[in-house]
Amino acid sequence: MSKGKEVRIARLLKAGRGLDIALDHGVCNEPSFLDGLEDMPGVIDRLVAAAPDAIQLNYGQADLLQLRPGRERPALVMRLDMGNPYNATRHRSMWAVLQNEHDPVLPAVQMDAACVVVNLFMLPDEPELFRQCVQNIARVRADCDRYGMPLMIEPLVMQPVTERGGYMVDGDAEKIVTLTRLAREMGADIVKADPTTNAEDFHRVVEAARCPVLVRGGGKEDLGAVFAKSAALMRQGAMGMVYGRNIYQHANPNAVVRGLMAIIHDDASGEEAFAQYQQG
Questions:
Q1: 201: exposed, middle or buried (Cβ count in 10 Å: 0-12, 13-18, 19+)
Q2: Cα 270 from chain centroid?
């Protein structure tokens, strides 16, 4: 790994661990994802005050974080791609494209990002979508090596909800491990993976990645369950979390961040994290 990548990863993962708050949902073109993100300047103000390790944004919103005065702010993780698998209604044609096809990593360098992230979708009967993701990653990885930018790959195994509906996460450990292995084969510096249905299987994902693994949060859940699951996954070797709706759609995001940071950096249990959250 190049020195440039090492320096940026050190900004992102403090002592090798980190909480990244995902606010890049605007490119999904899904109205329900924007609940709580209507006032982006206000959201950034609240979350910077909560002091997570990183905030994940697209290029068009990154200035809200990077132009803030002072040196103490979360690291920037920049989303480089976009696609339609998150929509509530399934489409006839599924796609995933880079937001900047000419020089996809350059905007992240210009905005002083600590890392970039790209999807690796595996959906039933959608080989063309998978091929597009592989092409995106191959292009981005070459530029990441050139610029010394860490590459986070997001392997996402999904299953259809209904014949006409959208997609949901598939927690099958075998599928997640296999796709994580592919992410590593393609040069991931960090993997952002879905949790396995059984948390005790997640160590297999970590072993397949051979690099830091951050757990993807997904949809909003009961907070006690979120803390308990997060602590269990950390015990299996995860190095942190990438959570979005479970933080920004919550009435007290500062308290949620405090609980998650205790799990990630202080090895707190789910119960201990929930107690910290309840302190308000």
A1: middle
A2: 21
Domain that holds residue 101: 3-277
Q: What is the pLDDT tens value at each position of the chain, 280 positions in all?
A: 788 899 999 999 999 999 999 999 999 888 888 999 999 999 999 999 999 999 999 999 999 999 998 778 999 999 999 998 888 778 889 999 999 989 999 999 999 999 999 999 999 999 999 999 999 999 999 999 999 999 999 999 998 766 556 778 899 999 999 999 999 999 999 999 999 999 999 999 999 999 999 999 877 778 999 999 999 999 999 999 999 999 999 989 999 999 999 999 999 999 999 999 998 7
Structure tokens of 6?
A: 């090492």
By the 8 A CB rule, do 221 and 169 touch?
A: no
Which two three-digit tokens encode residue 142? 């070459």
Distance, CA of 214 to CA of 210 (rounded, Å): 12
CATH number of the domain residue 251 falls in:
3.20.20.70
Q: Which residues of 99-119 are buried (b: 16+ CB within 10 A; e: fewer)?
A: eeeeebbebbbebebbbbbbb
Task: Give the count of domains, the chain.
Answer: 1
